[in-house]
Amino acid sequence: MPAAVIIGAQWGDEGKGKATDLLAGRIDYVVKFNGGNNAGHTVVIGDEKYALHLLPSGILTDGVTPVIANGVVIDIEVLFGELEALSARGVDVSKLLISANAHVITHYHRTLDKVTERFLGKRQIGTTGRGIGPTYADKINRVGIRIQDLFDENILRQKVEAALDQKNHLLVKVFNRRAISVDEIVDDLLSYAERLRPMVADTALVLHEALERGETVLFEGGQATMLDVDHGTYPFVTSSNATAGGAATGSGIGPNRIDRVIGIVKAYTTRVGAGPFPTELFDESGEFLRKTGFEFGTTTGRPRRCGWYDAPIARYTARINGVTDFVMTKLDVLTGLERIPVCVAYDVDGQRFDELPVSQSDFHHATPIYEEFPGWSEDISGARSFEDLPKNAQDYVLAIEAMSGARISAIGVGPGRDAIVVRHDLLD
Ligand code: IMP
């Protein structure tokens, strides 16, 4: 069983960390292939709660080699901050490998992210403000700074000069901010070079060799399908490929290496930031989901927008990623509801859409067509087999499975590491 990808099936925050955790002990490498410190994995181990933004959650598992691959954008200060915090709690972080080709988030990327959002006014994306978009934009524009540039001061200086030539015009003349000096950026980046050096590797080669040896590699997608720059609700998306295909380009392994794609889907839906969200609730049901599910951003602390499960989105995700298994998280949050609506299709100006409308304008004013399922009131957090779940909870899962385009192989029933019902082996 060589390579598996974990991806978010909705708009992020589905609880991917828990699924990674479920596979602990069977994984040799865990790879972050997209995004940066805009992500937020919360992993609960015993009484300890770990919130990771940049590091892959597999870093918490003994024996696993964590890899930050070429598709990631790295804020080096945040990287060292997280490494130090984990070390202080006794986590061994010495195995971390970082791609020489990963791009670096600098001070000017963070500044541009924030001022661009401010200028967009009510058209803003609601980014995390971490500099993600501007860093990927520089990568595509071929004016980015890569990790390997930190080991050649001359090259680094030339690249920062070229980038700031443009950026300072923008910052000063358009955004009315102060210019940023080349020295400030170069000195800052160089100050990390020696600490970084031992971690930097040709990670594509490392992963290739691991796969050749028959070792198991888990690719952990940041963000989610509906935030993918190509397949999400553009422009209300992140700036990377958060879908399964991104695991190949974002790490340098061949796509035919991947044989399991695990989609993480919440038993309801949440979203942070702006953009269309057909099942969003503005009433006390939304408040119930937010409170009970503790739906506040791991990275920004923002309250998440909450709504019912959206089956056309799950089907879309299953198709775009080639999902082999879904892990449904947070089923316990629905406990106590009398009836649970599930979106089965959309209505757009009187026309029924069973699948996502291709036009973003249609999707913006799609209203959900719901089917309702009876709820349950029993505490399900102790359930460890499907049969332990109340009949109505089983029926809810089975109904959703039939609509969602792939089997639901595991079900999260509480925040703890072991609060999960496994129906099928995710790697088999
Ligand atoms: P950016 O990734 O900071 O550029 O933000 C773009 C959009 O993606 C915004 O709507 C963010 O709220 C959203 N986003 C980015 N990372 C995450 C995440 O890990 N979970 C949920 N939403 C995210």
Automatic annotation (TrEMBL):
Q: Where in the cell is it found?
A: Cytoplasm
Residues at the active site? D13 (proton acceptor), H41 (proton donor), K139
Residue positions binding GTP:
12-18, 40-42, 304, 330-332, 412-414
Q: Which GO terms describe its cellular component?
A: cytoplasm
UniProt-annotated binding residues for substrate: T298, T299, T300, G301, R302, P303, R304
A Gene Ontology biological process noted in the UniProt record is: 'de novo' AMP biosynthetic process
User: Which annotated residues bind Mg(2+)?
Assistant: D13, G40
Cite the CDD domains for this sequence. AdSS
Cofactor field: Mg(2+)
As its record notes, the protein acts as a catalyst of: IMP + L-aspartate + GTP = N(6)-(1,2-dicarboxyethyl)-AMP + GDP + phosphate + 2 H(+)
* Matches recorded under PROSITE patterns: ADENYLOSUCCIN_SYN_1, ADENYLOSUCCIN_SYN_2
- Residues binding IMP are D13, E14, G15, K16, N38, A39, G40, H41, T128, R142, Q223, T238, R302
What Enzyme Commission number(s) does the record list for this chain?
A: 6.3.4.4
Q: Which Pfam families match?
A: Adenylsucc_synt
Per UniProt, which keywords does this protein have?
Answer: Cytoplasm, GTP-binding, Ligase, Magnesium, Metal-binding, Nucleotide-binding, Purine biosynthesis
- Coiled coil, from the record: none
GO MF annotation list: adenylosuccinate synthase activity; GTP binding; magnesium ion binding
The biological pathway it contributes to is: Purine metabolism; AMP biosynthesis via de novo pathway; AMP from IMP: step 1/2
Give the highest taxon in the source lineage.
Answer: Bacteria
Q: What is this protein's function per UniProt? A: Plays an important role in the de novo pathway of purine nucleotide biosynthesis. Catalyzes the first committed step in the biosynthesis of AMP from IMP.
Q: Which family does it belong to?
A: Belongs to the adenylosuccinate synthetase family.
Describe the protein's quaternary organization and the partners it interacts with: Homodimer.
What HAMAP family does the entry give?
A: Adenylosucc_synth (MF_00011)
Q: Which PANTHER family match?
A: ADENYLOSUCCINATE SYNTHETASE (PTHR11846)
What's this protein's name? Adenylosuccinate synthetase
